[in-house]
Amino acid sequence: MGFLGFSFFVLWVLEIVAAQPKTEPREVDAINKIIDHWKLRSKLNLSVDPCIQNATWAPDTANPRIACDCSDTVCHITHLKIYALDVSGEIPQQLFVLTELVDLNLGQNVINDSIPPEIGQLSKMEYLSLGINNLTGLVPAELGNLTKLLSLSFSSNNFQGTLPPQLGNLTSLNQLYIDSSGLSGPIPEELSNLKSLQTLWASDNRFTGKLPKFLGTFTDLKVLRLEGTSLQGPIPSSYGSLTKLEDLRIGDLTADDSSLAFLENLTSLSILSLRNCRIAGPLPEQVSTLPDLEILDLSFNKLTGPIPTSFKNFASLRYLYLGSNNLNGDLTPDVINSKLIALDVSFNSLSGNLLLHRKDLSMNVVGTSINDNNLINGKASSILHCLQGSSKCSTKFPSTSFSVNCGGTKQVSADGIQYDDDSEMLGAASLYSSANSRWSVSSSGVFISNPNGPRFMVQTDSQITNTLDSELYKTARIAPSSLRYYGLGLGSGKYQVELHFAEIQMDDSHSWKGLGRRIFDVYIQGDRVLQDFNIINEAGGSKIVLIKSFEANVTNTVMDIHFYWAGRGTCCIPFQSTFGPLVSAIHVTQVSELNGSSKGKKKHVGRILGITIGCAAGLLIISSIFYLWRTKKETERMLVLTDSPTKG
Ligand SMILES: *[C@@H]1O[C@H](CO)[C@@H](O)[C@H](O)[C@H]1NC(C)=O
Ligand SMILES: *[C@@H]1O[C@H](CO)[C@@H](O)[C@H](O)[C@H]1NC(C)=O
Ligand SMILES: *[C@@H]1O[C@H](CO)[C@@H](O)[C@H](O)[C@H]1NC(C)=O
Ligand SMILES: *[C@@H]1O[C@H](CO)[C@@H](O)[C@H](O)[C@H]1NC(C)=O
Ligand SMILES: *[C@@H]1O[C@H](CO)[C@@H](O)[C@H](O)[C@H]1NC(C)=O
Ligand SMILES: *[C@@H]1O[C@H](CO)[C@@H](O)[C@H](O)[C@H]1NC(C)=O
Ligand SMILES: *[C@@H]1O[C@H](CO)[C@@H](O)[C@H](O)[C@H]1NC(C)=O
Ligand SMILES: *[C@@H]1O[C@H](CO)[C@@H](O)[C@H](O)[C@H]1NC(C)=O
Ligand SMILES: *[C@@H]1O[C@H](CO)[C@@H](O)[C@H](O)[C@H]1NC(C)=O
What we know:
Blueprint: H1 3-19, H2 25-37, E1 65-69, E2 76-81, E3 88-89, E4 103-105, E5 110-113, E6 127-129, E7 134-135, E8 151-153, E9 175-177, E10 184-186, E11 199-201, E12 206-208, E13 223-226, E14 232-233, E15 247-250, E16 254-255, E17 271-273, E18 280-282, E19 295-297, E20 302-305, E21 319-321, E22 326-330, E23 342-344, E24 349-354, E25 362-364, E26 369-372, H3 373-377, H4 381-387, E27 401-406, E28 411-412, E29 418-422, E30 429-433, E31 439-444, E32 457-459, E33 475-478, E34 482-487, E35 493-501, E36 520-524, E37 527-533, H5 535-539, E38 546-554, E39 559-564, E40 582-583, E41 585-590, H6 591-594, E42 612-613, E43 620-621, H7 625-643
Parallel strand pairs: 2-4, 3-5, 4-6, 5-7, 6-8, 8-9, 9-11, 10-12, 11-13, 13-15, 14-16, 15-17, 17-19, 18-20, 19-21, 20-22, 21-23, 22-24, 23-25, 24-26, 27-29
Antiparallel strand pairs: 1-2, 27-41, 28-29, 30-31, 31-34, 32-33, 33-40, 34-39, 35-38, 35-41, 36-37, 36-39, 42-43
The structure holds 2-acetamido-2-deoxy-beta-D-glucopyranose (NAG) (9 copies).
One 2-acetamido-2-deoxy-beta-D-glucopyranose (NAG) binds next to helix 6.
C-alpha cells in the first residue's frame, strides 16, 4: 500500500471512528443492568453498543427506546423510554449513572417505592415523565435541581406529603402534571417562579389553603386544571390576566364566594368549567362574547338573576351547564344558541316555554317550571307531573318500590325482583322516564376530553363475582358530572335504598391499567350518604359486587338518588375520561313492606303545588315548586358540607 493508499486507509478508519464513537462504558453497563432489573431483555436484547448508528431502538417511535448523542468523542445515552410496558419494582440506582439524559419517560408502568434523591444528579433533563405508576414516599426536593426541565409529570401515583418548595427552581417548565399524585397540604409560594408554565394539571390532590393568587402571573398559561382539591375560594381576580387560557377547569372550592368578573379578557377560552365553586351573583352578559367557547359548565354554584339574552349570540358554544343555581326568570327560545347540543338548566327557579323542535339538542329541565316540547315528544312528559308529586301521573300510584338495572335491559334477579330496563341512550343533558313511569333518570355533563367516548353506559362480557345475578352487573350507567335517579309516585314512609355496584370499566390487575381510582359521592334525599366512595376499594377488586343499603324517608312522593362527581379520582386510567359515578342497579322498597307491616302504608300523596298550563300536547302540569324548594335546600346543604373540614 503506497502513501496515498495508507492515507485513505487512515481516513477511512477515522471516519468509522468519527461516525461510530464508543459509548461511555459506565453507561453501557448501567443500561444493561436497568434492562435486566426491569426484565426487558426479551424486548430489547442489547448485545451490541446501545448507541450504534441506525439502531432499531433509537427512533422516536421505538419502545423501549434508547437514543444517544455521539457528537462528542464518546457517545452518551440521552433518551430512555420505557412506556406502558408494565415494568415493576423500584427505580434502580444504575439510572443515575446516565447523567446525560435529557428525556426520560417511565410513564404507565407499575414502578413502586420512592423516587431516589439521586434523581437530582440528572441535571440535563428536559422531559421527565413518571406519570401513572405506583410510586410512594415523598416527592424528593432534589427534583428542584433539574432546572433545565421543560416538562415534568408525576401524575397518578401514591405519594405522601407536600409539594417541595424546591420545585420553584424549575423556572423553564412549560408543563407540570401532578394531578392525582397523592399530595396534600399547602401549595408552596415558591412555585410562583414557574412563570413559563403553559400547562398545569393539579386536580385531585388534597391541597389546602387559598387558591394561589400567583397563578394569575403565569401569563403563558393555556391549560389549568384544579378540580377536587381542598383549596378555598375565591377565584383571585389576578386570573383575569391569563388571556392565553384555552382550557380552565376549577372545581369544588370551599370558603369564600367568587364572581365571574375575571373572565372579561379571557378571550382564548374554549373550555370553561367552574363547577361547585361558590360562584355568586349574575351571569355576565359578556361571557357570551368569548369567541371560541365550546363548553361552559357553571353548575352547582350560587348564580342568581336571569340567563342573559346575549347567550343567544355565543359563536361556538355547544354544551351549556347551569344546573343547580338560583337563576330565575323566563327561559325562552330567544336565549338558546342554535349551535347548542346540550343544555342543562335543572334545579333553578326558571320558567318559560321552550317550544324548540330541536331533536339535536339534549336538555335537562328537571326542577324548573320550564315547559319543554322536546320532553313532551318523548316519554318524559309524565315525569314532570310525578316529579312535582302529582297523584295523576299513573293509576298504579302511589307505589312502594322501584328497581332499575342501570344501563341494562330488564332482569329478574335470583330472589325474584324485577329490575326495569334502563338501556336508553342518554345525551349530555337529558331526562328519561321508565316505561312504567315509576322512576326516571337524568344525566348532566360531558366527558370533556372524550365527548364521543362511552355514551354514559358501560358494559362488560366478564363474569361478575360475589353474586348470583352476574347479568345485572354487566352493564352500568356512568356520568361525568351528575347522574340522578328519581323514584316517582311513592307513598310516604320509610324506605330501604339498595345501591348495587360492581366496577366494570376499571381494572384491578397488576398492570398500570390497575392503578385507576374512581371516586364519587352519593346523596339520597339531599343527604350525602357516601363521600369519596371507591367501589374497587370497598368491594376488594374490580368486577366484584358491592351492595350498599341506606334508609330514607319519602314525604312527597319522590325519592331522589344523586350520584355526583366532586372532582376526585384519576382521570384517565385505563382510558381517557374514566372517572365519575358508576352504578349497576338500584332497588328501593318501603320498609314496612319488607317486614309485612302495614303501618307505613298511609300513602299520603304529596301536595300538588303546580300551576296548570294549557299547551298543544294537552294539559300539562309543569311547575315544580316542591323541587325548587328542595333544590335550594340541597344546594345550601352541599355548600355547608363542603365547607366542613371533614374532607380528607
Ligand atoms: C440476545 O442476543 C444474543 C446475540 O444476538 C443471543 O445469543 C441471545 O440468546 C439473546 N438473548 C435473548 C434473551 O434473546
Ligand atoms: C444509517 O442510515 C443512513 C440513512 O438511512 C445511511 O446513510 C447510513 O449508511 C446508515 N449507517 C449505518 C452504519 O448503517
Ligand atoms: C415493589 O415491587 C416489587 C416487585 O413487584 C416487590 O417485590 C417489592 O416488594 C415492592 N416494593 C415495595 C416497597 O412495595
Ligand atoms: C445537582 O446538580 C449538580 C450538577 O448540576 C450536581 O453536582 C449535584 O450533585 C446535584 N445535587 C443533587 C442534590 O443531586
Ligand atoms: C432551590 O430552591 C430552594 C428553596 O426554594 C432554595 O433555597 C435554593 O437556593 C434553590 N436552589 C437553586 C440552585 O436555585
Ligand atoms: C381587561 O382589559 C382591560 C384593558 O386592558 C382592563 O382595563 C381591564 O381591567 C381588564 N379586565 C380584567 C377583569 O382584568
Ligand atoms: C401498588 O402498590 C401497593 C402497595 O403499595 C400494592 O398493594 C398494589 O397492588 C400495587 N398496585 C399494582 C397495580 O401493582
Ligand atoms: C325518617 O323519619 C323518621 C321519623 O320521622 C326519623 O326518625 C328518621 O331519622 C328519618 N330518616 C332519615 C334518613 O331521614
Ligand atoms: C321493619 O324492619 C326494619 C328493619 O329492617 C325495622 O327497623 C322496623 O322497626 C321494622 N318495622 C316494623 C313495624 O316491624
